[in-house]
Amino acid sequence: MAKEQAIEVEGLVTEVLPDRNFRVQLQNDHVVLAYLAGRMSKFRIRVLVGDMVTLELSPYDLNRGRITYRHKVGSPPPVKRPVRRRR
């Protein structure tokens, strides 16, 4: 039997939990528990309360998901750090 495709949905992060877990409210007002995908933690992409995210839900368990993308629309701009020059 072939593996089922993941369902991609968008939601809003409402709560940050320990160990890279998040509570996300979907656009259809369902609340799911989501964890951060490995590639997002590898590149240290920070997800905060109020961020819009894209997550993948398994068709077998619609109460848990994996955050795969953080949208940049509602987030603050990155902080510019001064350039240090070598001597």
Give the helix/strand layout.
Blueprint (H helix, E strand, L loop, with lengths): L6 E11 L3 E6 L4 E6 L1 H5 L9 E6 L6 E7 L17
Parallel strand pairs: 3-5
Antiparallel strand pairs: 1-2, 1-4, 2-3, 4-5
Tags for this entry?
single chain, 87 residues, mainly beta, OB fold (Dihydrolipoamide Acetyltransferase, E2P), five-stranded mixed β-barrel, 1 helix, 41% strand, elongated
Plain-language structure description:
By secondary structure, the protein is mainly beta. The chain has a single domain, classed as Nucleic acid-binding proteins (OB fold (Dihydrolipoamide Acetyltransferase, E2P), Beta Barrel), CATH 2.40.50.140. Helices cover 6% and strands 41% of the residues. It is built from one helix and five strands, in the order βββαββ. It has one helix at 38-42; strands spanning 7-17, 21-26, 31-36, 52-57, 64-70. It has a five-stranded mixed β-barrel. A hairpin with a 4-residue loop joins strand 2 and strand 3.
Structure described in brief:
This protein has 87 residues and is mainly beta. Helix content is 6%, strand content 41%.
Order of helices and strands: EEEHEE
CATH architecture: Beta Barrel
Largest sheet: 5 strands, mixed, barrel
Q: What's the oligomerization state? A: single chain
Give me the CATH superfamily: Nucleic acid-binding proteins
In helices, the fraction of residues equals: under 10%
Mean pLDDT: 86
Helices and strands: which structural class?
mainly beta
DSSP, total strands: 5
Return the domain count.
1
Q: Order of strands across the widest beta sheet?
A: 1-2-3-5-4
**How far do the termini sit from each other?**
63 Å
Radius of gyration: 16 Å
**Which regions contain 5 or more consecutive residues with pLDDT less than 50?**
none
Q: The CATH topology, please? A: OB fold (Dihydrolipoamide Acetyltransferase, E2P)
Molecular shape: elongated
Q: With helices defined by DSSP (H or I, 4 residues minimum), what is the helix count?
A: 1
CATH class: Mainly Beta
How big a fraction of the residues is strand? 35-45%
